[in-house]
Design goal:
Helix content is 51%, strand content 16%. The protein is α+β, with helices and mostly antiparallel strands.
């Protein structure tokens, strides 16, 4: 009965309550957007990256002639032997670009007989990189010397791509080719040698995607790999950079080298990736403060206009506790109505999949709960003082208020 009575009161003042509900609805949508973005970031942070960054350094070769990297196949052996002569270095590998760098490389491939075309991210690496980065396989094997001269270039793919291409069966040994627009061009063949769980080279906040690791073979692979990934002994100080640079200069003095520990690159990338979230959080906080002031003002005005009504209720026996709870309950019902309308609109996003995995059902549910909690708390705080002020009025004061 009490609920029905409150709904009738709200409906009678629908013109005034409509603007208030719209303000709450917009506040809920803003909080939901920030919460969903933050929760998806947290969700991504919990997922494995597929590699270890501790005690790994990268040295990027800077040269005016990138073709020189692939022109001399013996260059990589010279670099490897020179660097392994340093006691601080345990293992040396070569990759297309460092981890924790905003670099991407994608290409299209096609399954045999053109049955299915797919796109995937690529990362080229030498045989030593899994040992440097502490990577592990789900099934199959890593690259090795046994792959030298293979007719089909060996590749490692992540589980996501394996399930996408070969659902319900093993991906090992499957062959596919690159997608070429010109039918006269001979398409290169690739054979799957192993499957990894995941590989996200840009770190913890990168969305999972199809990924393929290519084997780098000096003199055979097109071009060269300009990044040297080095596994150093635990506790190697940052001052080791000078000795590492001198050792590299002994091989090619005409090149320059950008040397960075992967831990430092990770810290820098995480800061860059969290900047949008920080900006959005500041904007959301500002908007919520503005909404709170507006909500408080509207509630104050509504309560003031209802003082004669409140006096009449007090005169016929309603105590201050009932008046207090009525003001708060009405505000909670208005907030609930606005939240329900907002959810009817927002639920279309995960249903249609327009945002993909960025707004999955787990994120949607958690963002809804968090946002509703914020709006209810805001509504409660804004209605406490107007409700308390109304409850303090005596029947005589209320009935004679102008």
């Amino acid at each position: 009965m009490m609920l029905r009575h409150l709904l009738k009161l709200i409906w009678k003042r629908k013109s005034r309550n409509m603007m208030l509900s719209l303000e709450i609805l917009l506040a809920f949508v803003v909080v939901f957007a920030i919460a969903a973005f933050a929760l998806r970031s947290w969700q991504l942070y919990q997922l494995p990256t597929g590699f270890q960054y501790q005690d790994v350094w990268s040295a990027v070769i800077n040269t005016r002639d990138p073709a020189a990297l692939g022109a001399d196949p013996q260059l990589y052996d010279k670099l490897r032997q020179s660097l392994k002569a340093l006691p601080e270095i345990e293992q040396v590998s070569f990759t297309s670009f460092p981890v924790y760098e905003s670099s991407t490389w994608t290409s299209d491939f096609v399954l045999p007989e053109g049955k299915r075309q797919f796109e995937t991210h690529l990362y080229e690496m030498s045989d030593e990189f899994p040992a440097v980065a502490g990577m592990s396989l789900v099934e199959g094997r890593w690259f090795s010397r046994a792959d030298d001269g293979a007719a089909a270039r060996p590749v490692i793919i992540n589980r996501r791509l394996a399930q996408h291409l070969f659902p319900g069966k093993s991906a090992l040994g499957q062959v596919f080719s690159e997608s070429v627009g010109d039918s006269k061009k001979q398409a290169k063949q690739y054979r799957i040698a192993g499957v990894i769980e995941e590989f996200r080279n840009q770190g913890e906040f990168q969305s999972p995607s199809n990924f393929m690791l290519l084997r780098f073979e000096p003199g055979v692979s097109e071009g060269g790999t300009p990044t040297i990934q080095i596994k150093v002994r635990p506790g190697t100080p940052r001052t080791f950079e000078a000795a590492l640079n001198r050792q590299l200069k002994l091989v090619r003095n005409d090149w320059s080298y950008t040397i960075s520990p992967s831990a430092d690159m990770r810290t820098s990338m995480l800061k860059t990736q969290t900047i949008p979230l920080t900006i959005l959080a500041v904007i959301a906080a500002f908007l919520l403060v503005m909404v709170a002031f507006g909500l408080f003002g509207v509630l104050w005005q509504n309560t003031t206009q209802r003082i004669p009504e409140i006096g009449l209720r007090r005169a016929i026996g309603a105590d201050s506790g009932h008046i207090y709870s009525q003001i708060i309950a009405e505000q909670m019902l208005l907030s609930s109505g606005a939240i329900v309308i907002a959810l009817l609109l927002l639920v279309q996003l995960p249903l249609t999949g327009v945002l993909g995995e960025s707004l999955n059902w787990t994120v949607f549910a958690m963002a809804t709960t968090l946002s509703a909690g914020v709006i209810y708390l805001l509504s409660l705080l804004c209605s406490l003082y107007p409700g308390w002020r109304a409850a303090r009025l005596s029947p005589t004061q209320a009935l004679h208020y102008e």
